[in-house]
Amino acid sequence: MSLPTGVDAPAAPRRSLTMLEWVIVAVACLGFAFDTYEIVILPLIARPAISTLGAFLPGTAQFNRWVGVLFFIPFLFGGLCGFFGGYLTDRVGRRRVLVWSILIYTASTWAAAYATSLPLFLLFRCTTIIGVCVEYVAAVAWLAELFTDPRQREAVLGYTQVASGLGSFTLAGAFYVAATYGHVLPPIRGAHETWRYTLLFGTIPAIPLIVVRPFLPESPIWRAKKAEGTLKRPRISELFQPALARTTLVSALIVACGYAITFGGTQHITIAVPDLTELVGRSRVEKEQAVSAVQFITVLGNVSGRLLLAWLVVHVVQRRRLLLGFVAPGLLLPFMFIWLVPTGMVALGLTMFLASALATGQYSFWGNYLPRVYPTRVRGTGESFAVNIGGRILGPAAALATTSLATIMIGANTLQRATRAAAVVLAVTQLTAVVAIRWLPEPNHQELPE
Question: How far is Cα 355 from Cα 357, in angstroms, rounded to an integer?
Fold first, then answer.
């Protein structure tokens, strides 16, 4: 007796992962961690890098302009190239794109550590983020197609993205080590600068990735369709045809609003931490250690949000309801930014924890949702539009909005002006996301569409 159309078959008993699958999961975890390290490093190093390479004082119009440029321009190019990378993922295969993307942003990170001017630093940040944007989309499509059991696939996608928190933990530790013990390390460009060492530390995880990834299997679904000649040429225009247009546009909009929490909010607060009243008059090392502490608290929020999503994604069937649970609380963030953040480290840490948990829970959600709404021939392209156009271009535009508003905001110091500007940006973006969720399509099946 056949099941009615639209009804999923009962779940088969879940099998254990093979040794090869465990290796794939471990490599994916390390890759996601490396991605996150390279993305979230900028709030820690932007202030000293701009001051060193451009000699601009924090809070000045020139300084704010460069903060906005460094937050937005690399992601603009990263989003555009990442979108093309998603197309290449559908054309030439998931594994090949993964290998080349790792090589690109490893070399770029190393070069950024030795930059001698702000334009050069910007150039290498652009190529770094291009590699990151391409790698993430290829990795999600690769994992989704390697694990065919629906519940196992949801768990693998959810928990491997929790490893992104490992990248943030590593970053917090690397920055602290560089700030505290950098004076005993070999000088870079004739100086012992924390931001340069922190960049270099980020290239270490690339070594095992470069060695192992070329030997891992290609997606069996993509490979089989390619061999049979049934894999149609991906067409970007298909994303905007009636069957997929609403999915494409609404998901990109909500992704952008989620990324705005980070680019328009938490990253600017991290930069302004040294302006807290309790840190005025402290040494440079003490201020950098305080920044590291805030980063560590943010990382705890990062991991908590991803772990919560990874658990909920296999227990909550309705995808829109699950996403709303991470989006709706974001309406509290503008008030917390204005009234809590300037009062001290404890309140600032609480706000950063919540904001990070909400943002990263949303990031992980899309890694599980998008593979289920796009067919194989445009899976990488469709994921890439939401993540790269929505998340890497529209989302980071919030950074320009925040820095522009911070320049004209009234406040006693950089921190107060940054929090008020961020509150305005978050109020607009989070309200937009709450409203837009009602138009987000619900996946019809647990299986991946062919």
Answer: 6
CB 24 within 8 A of CB 175: no
Structure tokens at 419: 């929090």
Residue partners of 290: CB distance under 8 A and separation at least 6: 273, 274, 276, 279, 282, 345
Paired strand residues for 188: 191
Residues composing the chain: 450
Confidence band for 3, pLDDT divided at 50, 70 and 90: very low
The string of pLDDT tens digits covering residues 231-243 is 777 788 999 999 9
Rounded CA separation 93/223 (Å): 8
H-helix or E-strand containing 61? helix 61-92
Cα 350 → chain centroid: 21
**Rounded CA separation 145/24 (Å):** 12
Tell me which of 270 and 434 has the higher pLDDT: 434
**Residues sharing a CB contact under 8 Å with residue 315, sequence separation 6 or more, in sequence order:** none
Task: Write the CA distances from 205 to 36, 274, 378, integer angstroms.
Answer: 12, 30, 30
Locate the domains of the chain by residue range.
28-439
> Residues 6 or more apart from 60 whose CB is under 8 A from it?
none
Which three-class secondary structure state does DSSP give residue 191?
Answer: strand
Cβ partners under 8 Å of residue 325, min gap 6: 312
SS3 340: coil
Angle at 81 between CA 449 and CA 132, to 5 degrees: 80
The CATH architecture to which 28-439 belongs is: Up-down Bundle (1.20)
**C-alpha to C-alpha distances, 109 to 52, 113, 236, nearest whole angstrom:** 18, 7, 31
Name the DSSP class of 216.
Answer: S
280 CB burial (10 A radius; 0-12, 13-18, 19+) = exposed
Collapsing DSSP to helix, strand or coil, 166 comes out as: helix
Question: Does residue 438 sit in helix, strand or coil?
Answer: helix
Place of tokens 């590291």: 292
Q: 384, 390 in Cβ contact below 8 A?
A: no
The answer for residues whose C-beta is within 8 angstroms of residue 423's C-beta and 6 or more apart is 333, 334, 335, 337, 338
pTM, two decimal places: 0.78
Residue located via tokens 């090589």: 103
